[in-house]
Every structure is written in structure tokens, then in C-alpha cells.
């Protein structure tokens, strides 16, 4: 396709999505759930065929010299497909939030005013690599009564096309418009530029991928973007605290998994508890091979720990998202300095305080300006499933509209509903 | 100021606002209310001085040949100032929503997860003409725990400066940072361009003014915009309906006031009720001098009405926001055609159905894609005060974040709060 054709093609997708969104918005819950269960069944019935389609992507990736861990992320194994199918069934079993009316109150004029939850309309999703995102996005879109346009990575195009075909079969089986979930069929990069600049058709863009991709999309988009940038998360060990618990939580927050955005990258420790706490956590990190980027005071307390990998922290370390067995460690005077440090250096994703002091806990919750603030829990919990949202389309580090893990409600908006009996304005 | 100086100046405002916002976010409700009551007192104490400052704006406006209705909008009469003072006191008397925690639920892991309402941070407000907006925006900003940067029109600069000085005195009296409310002191247009492009300092922009201003700001802003474009509102008279009520409501929706955005600009009438209803409403409109832009069928029914000003409607009329004694009138088959017409031509602001049919009412509420949908009430009710929001910073015709009248909650966001007892992720 040339640029003109791509623009025309993307506009056609947009106009079809817009038309489908009106039908999706009024679809009864039972019909949307029927489509989700049909999709689960189709994914199981077509597991072998999907693997054949997936094999072409894998072959191309290997031929292009992609590293094996990257090839792994592309794989549609029977286990991955079963997880997708179960996800669809879980969504089908969840209550439908569309149409719920909240806060209906009578006003002095006599009218009753409330808000009805409705789908946002059409969302565009731009993602890389893992083709199972196609099913996650499609199923969330169906459940939330939206239409969506999906643009996966070129490396997964054959898998994504096969998956999207099944989604459209499931929609048709339930009597819903196939255009409710459309995959961009071209790998031309121009399609992304078009997709993010059609406010007449697309209500919000959700990018998932590297920071470069997300920054580029945020800069160029002509519609709102639900974006997730860095996860520079902190665990602050307060004085007083339960030191044994603090060791367990600070360990989990860093080492349970290194790559997720909700892993802690910075450890702040109150001076009053540092002499007791630091050698204990230092020994845990040393045993797991976690490198510690330390301030001078914490170096002094950690130096005696056998096998500790200590590196002097630079200013840059306080802002760093390592996603690796590395953690920065800094001593602070107390909760004031901890809050100030976090509000300055954190990426406003997730930050936790470990404390037994009620006032410190309340101040931390109120004053730390992050999407998730925690008391006595591992930052690793910042996740749509752990929060009970049932599903997650992404995590927002913005304050506008959706903040933190974004589930079905993040794909909805509230419109005002006014019920009268012939009232007029005086 | 030259462009460079304006950029530097605006950045200084931004950085000061950002610093002040952290203090405002943690200010206790009593302290914010103290500032609001101090502001009310200061407005009353300085009424004479404020009128002197205002007189300079009025003089300049008259010298520039501004029409007297426009000059009127600039006036800070004792009545206008008293209304401002009362508004501050009403806000002070309202419950504080900042810090409220909603939906706290225990999850299978043991953690409890809820959401805390927090200020959005810093908002920028760009407005024209009426200087009392300075007090409305400042008082809402204080109550909601935000900081704001206000950019009024050059025609009201002396009044705005005087009002902003009082706001800062009130903040200081309560022990709050004066930078929590800053007025852009230069009338240089470059300052607007800067203000809307500082995502590091400003979280959201709220423009109030003509459509041209709002479109320009939406196009160029690098931060989210809460925008209100047209108000092409509809009243649909269904069959069956209470015809006497329909006449009363359709009259009020059009004629109670012609200039507001929530006045009805289009009247749709079901064929089944048109022969009875149209001559009645036609006589009302004729008596009030309202011009009717009619489809051929409604012309036939309205032609016998004495004094009716009938004009054949063009395609353009269905999209028009008249803000004048003009209304478009079209016959439709029923609720399906009404919904389709509205979703096609409406500006998604406010649309009402007048009906006695329960199913029609429910379908209209669910399927009309507008910020406010009403049953048996005048579209003129679409307003923050009438909805019980206590105050209104603007009306949003967007779906993202805030939709419809925007009160204090529209200036807040929800962050996740997680309370644990040492839980870790498995």
C-alpha cells in the first residue's frame, strides 16, 4: 500500500468501528457474554491451526536473527491459548457494568440526576510482540461494549490475523457486528500515524510497548492516550516498623521477578531502623546476586555483609528503572524526607511504606503522588488482577481519566441521566 | 515582554504552581475553608476599590468601541461581587471530597484495595471577558486542593489583577501558599501558547470562551483539555406523550433563555402526535417571535398557526447552534429515527425525550450518545448547580475523564490505596 491507500484503509477501519460501536453499546450483556464464550471455544477448537499460523511468525523471527527469549514471547503454545480461552470465560462470568446508574439523587427542582456508565466508543490499541494481547484486548473490548482497532507488531502478523479471524467468527455467532474488533491488516508504519490521528472515529489510544513507542505516540496523537511510561517504584522502610516483615516485603518487591514495572527499584530506609534492617536485607540481596547502588551511609552499614555487591549510587540512580537485579538504597531521616524523595524521583507508578506508625502511614498514603500507594505490602501487587479488576488493558501513569491498572471501567465513561416529570427551569 | 521573557515568565508560574500544589494537596479541609471565607470577606470589604479597578477596564472597552452588551459582561457590580462572595461561602460549607476512600475491598491475597480521591495537581484556565470567572476558578481550585494558573482576557486585566490580589491575601491569611492561585500578569498572547505546552507543570487546561479559542487550544495543547464545544441540544416529543407537559417543556427548553448552550436548538416530533402537538407549540413560539426552520411535513401542520414565522429548513439547520429565537423542527417516525437523528446531528451535549412510554424512555437514555440524556425535563437543566455539583468549572462535551457539567470531582483523580499486613506476591 502507498501512503494514500493506507490513509484510506485506516479511515475505512475507523468509520466501520464507529458504526459497530453504536451496536456494541446497546448490546445486551447476555449477547456479549455469548460472543466471549464462543471465542473461548473457537480458541480451543483451533489450537492446532493457530500454531501453524504462529509457526510462520516464529520462522520469520528466527530467520531475522531474533534472540530466542524474544522468539519465546511470540509463541502461541497450547498453554498460552488455554489461558486466553479461560480469560474470555472469566470475563463472560463477570457482572456487566454497562448501563449501571450511580448516584441518582433528587434535586431541589424535582429532577432526579444520576450517572450511567457507558462504553467510551472506539479505542485503538498499539502493541508489540506477544500475540495473546490480541485476545486480551478483543475480549475486554467486547465485554465493555466498545469497538476497537488493533495494531499488533509486524513480527506477529500471521498469528494476529488468525486470532482476529476467530474473534470475528465469535462476534458473528453471537449476532454482533464483526467490525467491533478489527485488526489492521497491513504492517505499514503509516497506519499507526493514521490510527492515532482520527478523533472523528477513535476516542482513545492505548499503546503497549517500549518507552520510545509510547513517547512517540503520546507526542503525535490527536486523541487521548492511556499511557504507561516508567515504573520507578520505591519501598520505604520506616521507623518504627516490623523489621522481619520489612525484610520479607522488601525482598519480594525487588526479587520476586525483576522485569515487571511494579518491581521496586529504590529502597529508602529511615536512619532509626537502618542499623538493624540493612544488614538483614543486604544479606538477602547478596545471596540472590542483587547489586546495591548505595548512598555513603548505607554503604557503611552494608560493607560487613558477606558477598554484598555494593556500588556507589550516582544522582542518576535515584531515577533509574533497572528491570534487573539491581536496587538503589538510600538512608533518609524519616517519612518527610521519604515522601519528598519519592515525589521528586519516582515515576508516580507505585510506592510503598512499611511501618507500624499510623500517622506515618496516613501521611504517606495522602501525600505520595503516585498511581498506587501502599502500606505494608509489596509493590509487586500493583496489577489489575491483584486489584480485583478482573482484567487489565494496561496501567496508566497519568492522572487524567484512568490512573493505575486500567480494567473495564477505564474503557467506559459516565453520562448524566436526568429523570423528570415535566419540570422546567424557572 | 518579548517571546523569550514570556516563556521564562510562564515557566516560573508553572514551577511555582507545581510547588504550591503539593502543599494544597495536603491542606486540611478547615484551612481551605478558612481561605474561602476570608476571600468572601475581602470581596465585600473591597467592593468599592474593585469597582475603581473595574472602571479602568470599562473605560478602555468603551474607548475601543465595544458594544454595550459586551461592556456589561465586564462589569463588577456590587451584586456580581456579592454573588462571588456567596459562592465562596457555599463552597466553604460543602463537604471536602479530597482524601475520601471508595470501594475498599479485600482481595484473595489478603491486601485491601480501594481508591482515594486526590487533587489533579495544577490546572490552567483560559477565559474571556467576565472577570468573576477569576473568583469562580480560584475558589474551586482552593476547595479541590489544586493549584491553578489563570489567564483572563486582556479586556478585563485590571479587574482580574485586583481580584487575584485578594485571592492571594485570603490564601496567605489561611496559611496557604499564595502561588496556589496565580494570574498571568501579561496580556501577551504568547503566554497562552506557553501555558498549554508545559506538561511538566500543568496537568489539565480548561478553556472557556468562543469556539475558535477552544478549537485552537485543543489543537495545540500538549496536556489534556476539558473542553466544551457546541451545544446543539434536542427535545424529542414522542408518541405517546403527555401533550400539555410536552408543550410546557419544549417551550421552556427553547425560550426560557436563548443564549445558553443547553437551550434546545432542534425539536423532533413523532408523527403519531404531531397533528395534536405542533399547532400548540407553534402558537407558543409564534407568540414569542421564535422563528421555526421546518421540514415539509411540519410546515403543513404549522401553516395554519397565526403569526408563525416558518422557514424551510436546510440540511445545515439540523447541525446549527442558533443561540437565538430560532428552532429547527422535524417530524420523525418514532424513537428509532429520533435517536438516529440525534446521534448524527447533535453535538452530544444534552438531549431530552418527552414520553409516557417506559421502553422508549429506557432506549433513549441508553442509546443517545450525549453527555446528558433526559426524560420529561427541559434541556435547560444541564448545569452544575442544577445537578447538585455545588459549583461548575465548565461543561465537557468530551467522553474522556469528565463528561457534562464539571464540578469539583472533575478536578480530582483517584489513586489506588493498598493496605496490607506484610503480604508478598507468590
Task: Report a brief summary of the structure.
Chain A is of the alpha/beta class and 426 residues long.
Please describe the structure with a list of short key phrases separated by commas or semicolons.
homodimer; 426 residues; alpha/beta; Aldehyde Dehydrogenase, Chain A, domain 1; Aldehyde Dehydrogenase, Chain A, domain 2; 2 domains; seven-stranded parallel sheet; 14 helices; 43% helix; 21% strand
Description:
Two copies of one chain form a homodimer. Chain A is of the alpha/beta class and 426 residues long. In chain A, strand 9 (291-294), helix 12 and strand 10 form a beta-alpha-beta unit. The mean pLDDT of chain A is 95. The longest helix of chain A has 23 residues, at 3-25. In chain A, helix 2 packs across helix 7, helix 3 (47-63) runs antiparallel to helix 7 and helix 10 crosses helix 11 (271-287). Chain A has two domains: 3-226 and 406-417, Aldehyde Dehydrogenase, Chain A, domain 1; 233-381, 3-Layer(aba) Sandwich (Aldehyde Dehydrogenase, Chain A, domain 2). Helices cover 43% and strands 21% of the residues of chain A. Chain A has a seven-stranded parallel β-sheet. Chains A and B meet through strand 2, helix 10, helix 14, strand 13 and strand 16 of A and strand 2, helix 10, helix 14, strand 13 and strand 16 of B.
Amino acid at each position: 500500500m502507498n501512503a494514500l491507500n493506507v490513509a484510506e484503509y485506516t479511515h475505512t477501519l475507523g468509520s466501520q468501528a464507529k458504526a459497530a460501536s453504536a451496536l456494541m453499546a446497546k448490546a445486551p450483556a447476555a449477547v456479549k457474554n455469548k460472543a466471549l464464550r464462543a471465542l473461548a471455544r473457537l480458541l480451543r477448537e483451533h489450537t492446532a491451526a493457530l500454531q501453524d499460523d504462529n509457526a510462520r511468525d516464529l520462522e520469520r523471527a528466527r530467520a531475522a536473527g531474533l534472540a530466542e527469549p524474544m522468539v519465546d514471547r511470540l509463541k502461541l503454545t497450547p498453554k498460552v491459548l488455554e489461558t486466553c480461552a479461560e480469560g474470555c470465560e472469566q470475563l463472560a462470568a463477570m457482572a456487566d457494568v454497562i448501563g449501571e446508574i450511580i448516584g441518582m439523587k433528587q434535586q431541589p427542582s424535582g429532577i432526579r440526576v444520576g450517572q450511567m456508565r457507558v462504553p467510551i466508543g472506539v479505542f485503538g490499541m498499539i502493541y508489540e510482540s506477544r500475540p495473546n494481547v490480541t485476545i486480551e484486548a478483543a475480549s475486554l473490548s467486547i465485554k465493555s461494549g466498545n469497538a476497537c482497532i488493533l495494531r499488533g507488531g509486524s513480527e506477529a502478523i500471521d498469528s494476529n490475523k488468525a486470532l482476529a479471524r476467530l474473534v470475528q467468527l465469535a462476534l458473528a455467532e453471537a449476532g454482533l457486528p464483526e467490525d467491533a474488533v478489527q485488526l489492521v491488516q497491513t504492517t505499514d508504519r503509516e497506519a499507526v500515524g493514521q490510527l492515532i490521528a482520527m478523533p472523528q472515529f477513535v476516542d482513545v489510544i492505548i499503546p503497549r510497548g517500549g518507552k520510545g513507542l509510547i513517547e512517540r505516540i503520546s507526542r503525535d496523537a490527536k486523541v487521548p492516550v492511556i499511557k504507561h511510561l516508567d515504573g520507578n517504584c520505591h519501598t520505604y522502610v520506616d521507623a518504627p516498623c516490623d523489621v522481619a516483615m520489612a525484610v520479607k516485603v522488601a525482598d519480594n518487591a525487588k526479587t520476586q521477578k525483576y522485569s515487571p514495572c511494579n518491581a521496586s527499584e529504590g529502597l529508602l530506609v529511615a536512619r532509626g531502623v537502618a542499623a538493624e534492617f540493612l544488614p538483614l536485607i543486604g544479606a538477602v540481596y547478596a545471596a540472590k546476586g542483587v547489586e546495591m547502588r548505595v548512598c555513603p551511609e548505607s554503604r557503611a552499614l552494608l560493607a560487613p555483609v558477606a558477598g554484598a555487591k555494593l556500588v556507589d549510587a550516582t544522582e542518576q540512580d535515584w531515577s533509574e528503572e533497572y528491570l534487573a537485579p539491581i536496587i538503589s538504597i538510600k538512608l533518609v531521616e524519616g517519612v518527610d524526607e521519604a515522601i519528598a524523595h519519592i515525589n521528586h524521583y519516582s515515576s508516580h507508578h507505585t510506592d510503598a511504606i512499611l511501618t507500624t506508625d499510623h500517622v506515618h502511614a496516613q501521611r504517606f498514603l495522602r501525600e505520595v503522588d503516585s498511581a498506587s500507594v501502599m502500606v505494608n505490602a509489596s509493590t509487586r501487587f500493583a496489577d489489575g488482577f491483584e486489584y480485583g479488576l478482573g482484567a487489565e488493558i494496561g496501567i496508566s501513569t497519568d492522572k487524567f481519566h484512568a490512573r493505575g491498572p486500567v480494567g473495564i471501567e477505564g474503557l467506559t465513561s459516565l453520562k448524566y441521566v436526568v429523570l423528570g416529570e415535566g419540570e422546567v427551569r424557572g
